[in-house]
Structure to design on (401 residues):
């Protein structure tokens, strides 16, 4: 027998809720075949089979919550089985040691349903994304498809036998269930505003030299088929500033009433996707060049937007940047990525008249917004931190020092 225990599939995960099983007792499964979906505090995660074998026992039913290290399911091994090493729990105060071979977990930004239910939906011509599931956490069951099909048939018959309704009669509310990734965002945002005392500091800076610096880099022969955005510069500036202002590279331990300062700098970047906000993470950003950050960021953004980002890609941040982009707002007040103590919002770059040594010139400006937990950080350190970030963005030659 092989006991497969619930691994730590997230940063400091203690427990997860079983959303739905893809297998049942007595079923033979192959290695890497979908086994179960679980809901963590960040996302719905699909866990695959670690070996080939027969399912002898399931560690819980749909809707049950199980703790890390407890039995997820039990296998009876076949001749081609080779049990892997059990994943060890994550120790937050130490750097991650990534094994060469590990189980991959894909973050899913989709309606939850078993493969058999999805196949049935395709056969019936039903868009499963439109179904409100009756299972745990909104999981779509086969009965939901049957009810939807019956209701659709009844609705068609009703329309055929009734005259056109007035506008008032069809003006009904649209109900959108909060589930999956949106539910995780909902809960994390609620934690941030209910536990932290949030305040935002704002500053306008002159980035005329940064615009010229990026343009000169873009014109290099090595950059002929590449494009570098401003975001890698923002990430590098923040990562460097965090080395000087370590109290911002931290989280609050609510139980111990303590500020926990991280020994490494991992920058999360808030990304808007069709399913909601994801935060891919640039690990050890302070030790990487702008070009290394740009390449890694491009890869992470592509994975996030195509729903291929793993839990490893989306966890471990010690500080987060929220960039509104070139078409975004002039100012905003971002919400911290709880339990982090601060977040920096970077906003669109604007070409406008500016005063330089008592003369009016045409230049480029942008604004910064730093939202912080006022329980552990005061206003003066925020001003100093933003000034450090601004020093690099206003004089980008500092990146070369």
């Amino acid at each position: 027998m092989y006991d497969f225990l619930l691994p730590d599939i997230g940063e400091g995960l203690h427990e997860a809720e079983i959303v739905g099983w893809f297998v049942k007792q007595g079923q033979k499964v192959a290695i890497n075949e979908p086994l179960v979906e679980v809901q963590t505090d960040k996302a719905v995660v699909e866990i695959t089979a670690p070996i080939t074998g027969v399912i002898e026992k399931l560690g819980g039913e749909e809707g049950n919550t199980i703790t890390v290290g407890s039995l997820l399911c039990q296998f009876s091994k076949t001749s081609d089985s080779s049990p892997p090493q059990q994943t060890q729990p994550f120790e937050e105060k130490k750097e991650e040691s990534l094994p060469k071979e590990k189980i991959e977990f894909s973050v899913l930004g989709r309606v939850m349903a078993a493969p058999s239910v999805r196949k049935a939906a395709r056969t019936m011509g039903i868009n499963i994304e439109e179904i409100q599931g009756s299972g745990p956490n909104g999981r779509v069951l086969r009965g939901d498809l049957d009810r939807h099909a019956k209701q659709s048939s009844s609705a068609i018959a009703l329309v055929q036998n009734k005259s056109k309704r007035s506008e008032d009669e069809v003006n009904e509310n649209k109900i959108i269930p909060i589930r999956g990734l949106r539910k995780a965002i909902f809960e994390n945002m609620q934690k941030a505003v209910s536990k932290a005392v949030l305040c935002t500091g704002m500053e306008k800076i002159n980035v005329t030299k940064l615009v010229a610096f990026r343009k000169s880099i873009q014109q290099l022969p090595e950059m002929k088929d590449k494009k570098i955005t401003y975001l890698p510069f923002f990430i590098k500036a923040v990562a460097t500033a965090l080395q000087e202002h370590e109290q911002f590279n931290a989280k609050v331990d609510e139980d111990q009433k303590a500020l926990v300062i991280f020994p490494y700098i991992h920058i999360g970047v808030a990304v808007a996707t069709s399913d909601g906000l994801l935060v891919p993470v640039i690990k050890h950003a302070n030790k990487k060049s702008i070009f290394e950050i740009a390449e890694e960021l491009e890869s992470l953004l592509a994975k996030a937007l195509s729903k291929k980002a793993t839990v490893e890609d989306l966890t471990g941040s010690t500080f987060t940047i929220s960039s509104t982009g070139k078409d975004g707002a002039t100012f905003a007040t971002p919400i911290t990525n709880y339990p982090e103590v601060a977040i920096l919002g970077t906003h669109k770059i604007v070409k406008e008249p500016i005063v330089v040594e008592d003369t009016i010139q045409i230049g480029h400006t942008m604004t910064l917004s730093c939202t912080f937990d006022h329980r552990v950080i005061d206003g003066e350190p925020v001003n100093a931190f933003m000034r450090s970030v601004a020093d690099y963005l206003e004089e980008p030659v500092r990146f070369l020092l």
In short: Residues 86-109 have pLDDT under 50 and may be disordered. The domain at 115-161 is CATH 4.10.320.10 (Dihydrolipoamide Transferase). DSSP finds eight helices and 20 strands in the chain. Residues 164 and 350 are 51 Å apart (CA to CA).
